[in-house]
Amino acid sequence: MLLDHLDDQQLLFFGGKGGVGKTTCAAATALSCAQRGERVLLISTDPAHNLGHLFEHSIGDDGHSLSETLDVIEIDAARTTAAHLKQVEATMRRLSPPRLHKEIERHVQLAAHAPGTHEAAILERIAQLVDVHRTTHDRIVVDTAPSGHTARLLALPELMSAWTDGLLRRRDTADRLSAAARGLSAKDAAVAAASPLEQRNQELRHILHERRELFARLRDLLSDAHRCAFILVLTAEALPVAETIEFHHELTCHQGLRVPALVVNRRSPVDQGEFLARRHEVEEQHLATLREALPDVPLVQIPLLEHDIVGTEQLHDFARHTAGER
Ligand SMILES: Nc1ncnc2c1ncn2[C@@H]1O[C@H](COP(=O)(O)OP(=O)(O)OP(=O)(O)O)[C@@H](O)[C@H]1O
Ligand SMILES: [Mg+2]
């Protein structure tokens, strides 16, 4: 069982190439954990959501409780980005003089289409969801979009923290310089501190600081092997194998994440005719490459099933099919 390779890490990510079975594995794992009494939150970050289809229930960004122990949320990327930008604009307007408001509006409109905005908004939503639900849920399972996207997403906390730090440093230097330029005495400084300008500065610093702390907490959680794990899902074919080796390297060496197991999905049967038996042989060759590159990572293999997996009954069945041998 895949669960045998997991400890009680609170945050579980499922990633891998397009169409290999990430959503099915994430949902089956969430369901198994919920069934054994854990309080579970399953989050989908993939814009092409299909958790709703899988659980045969409409879910959406506000989330839905499928049972007493299983909650599901599909992050709506467009809504998240719009809400994120609206919040940024409101904050900037509140903190700047009215003559700049038109300019701010223009900047925010441009930002809506800038590369990275979308990912930053999704990351902020994940960070907030994790922050809120880490105290209410035993497990948070995240079904991610195909690999490239996810690697960038995980590199973001670092980037966003660095960016916020830079802004805070610039603010501090500017404040010190302007106090010095004005030759403020301690008494003058006390009066200046109560001025509307200084209050706005304080508020801005507070907002930046909170954001920094939010991303720092997510980063801490991501890089703690006892609290976070990343499961890579693949099929036993040349390209998914090559990409998994690269992705594993990126996650473990560059991001400091732990990958406790790989799920090899859709294994062809050996006893259903010659064609599939030959395919099984070819798959074995690809898995040999995988085992050689990553000798210490356990493989959990799942057979190719006759049908698509839809509904809790079939998800249970899917979870039962996982076997832990290498
Ligand atoms: N072992 C299996 N046997 C048969 N069908 C499977 C198996 N695993 C997954 N499927 C089916 O394959 C399809 C793709 O699976 P899934 O949606 O989980 O992949 P994904 O990696 O999340 O895809 P995407 O990258 O598009 O998000 C689904 O229809 C699912 O029911
Ligand atoms: Mg998916």
TrEMBL record:
CDD domains with a match to the protein in the record: ArsA
Chain ranges of the ArsA/GET3 Anion-transporting ATPase-like domain: 10-320
Alphabetized InterPro entries for the sequence: ArsA/GET3_ATPase-like, ATPase_ArsA/GET3, P-loop_NTPase
Family matches, as SUPFAM superfamilies: P-loop containing nucleoside triphosphate hydrolases
Molecular function GO terms recorded: ATP binding; ATP hydrolysis activity
Family affiliation: Belongs to the arsA ATPase family.
Protein name according to UniProt: ArsA family ATPase
